[in-house]
Each structure stands twice: as structure tokens, then as C-alpha cells.
Write a structure and sequence with these properties.
This protein has four helices and eleven strands. It is an alpha+beta fold. Helix content is about 20%, strand content about 40%.
């Protein structure tokens, strides 16, 4: 139940930065006006969540993990990937970056972050991938409960910690899901 609320919250955060226009997801494609992108259903253990009014394709697994993908277009998104990622973390507290790297996705550089945080005092681990392509921003993320090894330390413990925190996920599964992402059509860029 808490994950469903988390999914709706993060879906609202995702699209709260965009134009607010409704997108739809059907047969693996997300479409709105001149924007079309696609991503595979994550698999038989996943259920599609009904958040189309939020403009996001979202999936839930065993009521403990969600995945979401969204896209929005416009010139106001011509800002660094780190800033775009930071907007996705609004509402989360005790944010700790475990790992961050640049990677290629759909022929563009994407920012891939693994993050530990809390929402309403409940620990969460996030995998957030943000990329820009043809005047559009795309966010792909997974939010789940952290493993016991990834429990969030207190602020004092975090400052004293000499060993890096761990992040428990099935990286190959998430990476395989990311590899199914395709941008099919974007709005025509305006000159000048």
C-alpha cells in the first residue's frame, strides 16, 4: 500500500515538471501529440499501475517495487542532468548517493544514479536514470525497499562512515529493462 502511494507521489513529481499534458501507455508505447517513446513491460511479475492521468507508464512488483518512465518536451528543459535528477528527489529526506555514472542510452548520455533516501521516515532505494534527447527529458526509475545492508545511517553515522553504503538491486534486470527504451518521435525543434 505504501509503495502504491509512493508510486503516485513520484509519478506526480515526474510530470509536475512537465507541461501537465496527459500521456497514454499502450502496447509498450507512450504517446502524446508529437512525442512517442516505448519500453517493454518489465515481465510477468510486474503489474501495470493505473496512473495514466499522471502521464507516466508505471509498473509494480509484489507491492514492494515500482518502475516508472516519463517524457516531457520543451525548451525549458535545457538544463544539466544533475538538476533534472534533483527535481525527482523532492519530498525525499536523508538522501545519500551510493553511485552515479554516465552511460549511453538511445544514443545520448544519461545520468544513472543509485540513491538511498527516506520518504515519510521509511527507507527507500532509488535507481534514477535521466536523459535529454531532441528537446525532451526522459526519466526512468525504480523505487524499492532497501536490503538490510543498505539501511540508512543516521547523519552522525554517515559523517563517520569510512565504508561505502551498499545498494541492493537486480542491476542486470533493470539494465535489461532500460535497454528496451526507444524514442520513436519527438516534437520538431524550433529554430532560432
Amino acid at each position: 500500500m505504501h509503495v502504491r502511494r509512493l508510486g503516485l507521489l513520484s509519478a506526480g513529481l515526474l510530470m509536475g515538471l512537465g507541461c501537465g499534458s496527459q500521456l497514454s501507455w499502450r502496447d509498450g508505447q507512450v504517446q502524446h501529440r508529437d512525442l512517442t517513446f516505448e519500453i517493454a513491460h518489465p515481465g510477468p511479475d510486474w503489474t501495470q499501475m493505473k496512473v495514466s492521468d499522471r502521464g507516466t507508464a508505471a509498473f509494480e512488483r509484489n507491492a514492494d517495487t515500482i518502475r516508472e518512465v516519463s517524457g516531457r518536451c520543451g525548451s525549458r528543459h535545457d538544463i544539466p542532468l544533475e538538476v533534472l535528477r534533483r527535481h525527482l528527489l523532492l519530498g525525499f529526506r536523508d538522501v545519500s548517493f551510493v553511485e552515479e555514472q554516465r552511460r549511453q542510452l538511445v544514443g545520448r548520455e544519461a545520468l544513472d544514479s543509485r540513491i538511498l533516501a527516506s520518504l515519510d521516515g521509511v527507507p527507500r532505494q532509488l535507481r534514477v536514470v535521466v536523459l535529454k534527447k531532441d528537446g525532451c527529458v526522459f526519466d526512468l526509475l525504480e523505487i524499492s525497499a532497501p536490503s538490510a545492508a543498505a539501511a540508512l545511517p543516521s547523519q552522525a553515522q554517515a559523517e563517520e562512515a569510512a565504508t561505502p553504503q551498499t545498494f541492493d538491486d537486480d542491476a542486470s534486470d533493470f539494465s535489461a529493462w532500460l535497454d528496451t527504451f526507444r524514442v520513436r518521435r519527438t516534437p520538431r525543434l524550433k529554430g532560432g
